C-alpha cells in the first residue's frame, strides 16, 4: 500500500551515512520502505524533524532536503521470538539473544547455556528471519590470544566462516575464525577516515583485515597508510582487500609486532596513528608517540573501561604515559563506543600529541 510521508531527500552517495545518522536520532519511520530515483534516496520520517535533529544532520550532511514523497508500506517482519513461539517452551523465549552481529552473509550470535540444546532451531529461525544470511555461527569461546581470535560453531546454513562484508562503499574479505573483525565499529572506521586530510601519513598499529586503512585509502587520493598486524592471516586478507578495493600504492602492510616494526621502520613519520587494540592499548602508547612526527600529530586510541570508571580516567592514564615519552597531550574528543560486557565499555580518545 502506498502512503505519503514527510521525508529526507539526499544524494545517493550520502544515503548510507544519512540513514545511520537518522537512525541514531530515532527519526526514521521503519514502517515504510526507502525509495530511490536516479539521483536521490528518500528516507521516510515519523514526523517533521525537530530543529535540533535537523541541525545535527545538516552539520554532517549539507545536501539534506526535507520534503514529501510517496512510500510503500513494509510487510511486518517476523522476529526471532515470533518464529520460535511454538517451537520453544515459553520460559525459554525470554532468554533468546536480542541481537546478532552480521558480517557479510554470516550471522553471529551468543547462545546462553539454557538454550544450548535448542541452538539448531534458533539458527534455522535466524536464517528464515534474515533472507540474505547464509550461515549462522554461535560463539564457542571468548576472544583470546595475541591475534584476538574466537572459536565458532556452525549451527545453521552453509558450513563456512569466510565472507565478503560491505561497509561505507568498501568491501572486505574476512574469515571471522582466522582474523579479528567487528562490524560494530563501522561508524568508527568511517569517522576516523573522514578526519584524515589529503597528504597525510597514517600508521595503523593493529590493522587487522584493514577496515580503517581501506576506508582511509578509498576516500582520499593522496595518503599513505602503514598497516601493521601480528596475525599473518589478517595481513593476507588485508592484501586481498587492497586489491579488491583498488587502493594499491596507498597501503603498505607489515606483519609483525607493532613495537618492533615502528622501532625499525616507522619512527617519526606519522601525522596520525590508529590504536585499535583495546585490551592492551595502554602498553603501546609509547610506540604511538615514537611513530608521530616531531611536529606532532593525532592519535586515535581505543581501550576498555569499567562503567564505574570515567572517560577522564582513561584520558589521564593516556596522558601520563605520553608525557613519559616527552610528548604534550591535548584531548580533542572522547566517547563510549559500545558496551562489550556487563559494566564494561569500549571507549575512544582522539588526542593531539606533540
Descriptive notes:
The structure is a single chain. Strand 12 (224-229), helix 8 and strand 13 form a beta-alpha-beta unit. With 354 residues, this protein is an alpha/beta fold. It has a seven-stranded mixed beta sheet, with helices on both faces. It has a four-stranded antiparallel beta sheet with strand order 2-3-1-4. The model has no long low-confidence stretch (mean pLDDT 93). The chain is built from eleven helices and 17 strands. The protein folds into three domains: 2-72, Alpha-Beta Plaits (2-Layer Sandwich), CATH 3.30.70; 80-160, 2-Layer Sandwich (GMP Synthetase, Chain A, domain 3); 182-353, Rossmann fold (3-Layer(aba) Sandwich), CATH 3.40.50. The longest helix has 14 residues, at 311-324. It has helices spanning 15-24, 51-60, 80-84, 90-93, 119-129, 186-195, 211-219, 232-244, 258-265, 285-291, 311-324, and strands spanning 2-11, 35-36, 40-44, 65-72, 101-103, 106-109, 135-139, 152-157, 162-167, 170-175, 201-204, 224-229, 251-255, 272-275, 297-306, 329-341, 344-353.
Amino acid at each position: 500500500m502506498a502512503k505519503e510521508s514527510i521525508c529526507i531527500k539526499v544524494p545517493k552517495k550520502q544515503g548510507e551515512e544519512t540513514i545511520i545518522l537518522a537512525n541514531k536520532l530515532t527519526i526514521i519511520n521503519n514502517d515504510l520502505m526507502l525509495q530511490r530515483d536516479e539521483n536521490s534516496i528518500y528516507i521516510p520520517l515519523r514526523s517533521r524533524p525537530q530543529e535540533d535533529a535537523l541541525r545535527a544532520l545538516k552539520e554532517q550532511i549539507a545536501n539534506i532536503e526535507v520534503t514529501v514523497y510517496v512510500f510503500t508500506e513494509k510487510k511486518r517482519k517476523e522476529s526471532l521470538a515470533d518464529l520460535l513461539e511454538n517451537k520453544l517452551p515459553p520460559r525459554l523465549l525470554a532468554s533468546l539473544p536480542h541481537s546478532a552481529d552480521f558480517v557479510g552473509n554470516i550471522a553471529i550470535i551468543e547462545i546462553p547455556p539454557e538454550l544450548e540444546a535448542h541452538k539448531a532451531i534458533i539458527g534455522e529461525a535466524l536464517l528464515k528471519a534474515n533472507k540474505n544470511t547464509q550461515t549462522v555461527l554461535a560463539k564457542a569461546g571468548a576472544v583470546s590470544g595475541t591475534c584476538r581470535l574466537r572459536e565458532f560453531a556452525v549451527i545453521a546454513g552453509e558450513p563456512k566462516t569466510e565472507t565478503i562484508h560491505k561497509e561505507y562503499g568498501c568491501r572486505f574479505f574476512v574469515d571471522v575464525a582466522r582474523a579479528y573483525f567487528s562490524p560494530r565499529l563501522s561508524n568508527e572506521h568511517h569517522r576516523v577516515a573522514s578526519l584524515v586530510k589529503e597528504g597525510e601519513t597514517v600508521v595503523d598499529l593493529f590493522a587487522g583485515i584493514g577496515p580503517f586503512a581501506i576506508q582511509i585509502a578509498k576516500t582520499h587520493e593522496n595518503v599513505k597508510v602503514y598497516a601493521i598486524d601480528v596475525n599473518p592471516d589478517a595481513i593476507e586478507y588485508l592484501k586481498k582487500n587492497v586489491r579488491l578495493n583498488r587502493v594499491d600504492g596507498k597501503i603498505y602492510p607489515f606483519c609483525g609486532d607493532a613495537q618492533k616494526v615502528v622501532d625499525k621502520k616507522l619512527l617519526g613519520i606519522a601525522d596520525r596513528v590508529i590504536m585499535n587494540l583495546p585490551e592492551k592499548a595502554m602498553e603501546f602508547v609509547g610506540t604511538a608517540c615514537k611513530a608521530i612526527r616531531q611536529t606532532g600529530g593525532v592519535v586515535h586510541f581505543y581501550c576498555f573501561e569499567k562503567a564505574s570508571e570515567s572517560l577522564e580516567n582513561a584520558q589521564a592514564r593516556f596522558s601520563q604515559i605520553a608525557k613519559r615519552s616527552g610528548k604534550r597531550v591535548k584531548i580533542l574528543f572522547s566517547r563510549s563506543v559500545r558496551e562489550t560486557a556487563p559494566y564494561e565499555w569500549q571507549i575512544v580518545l582522539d588526542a593531539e600529541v606533540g
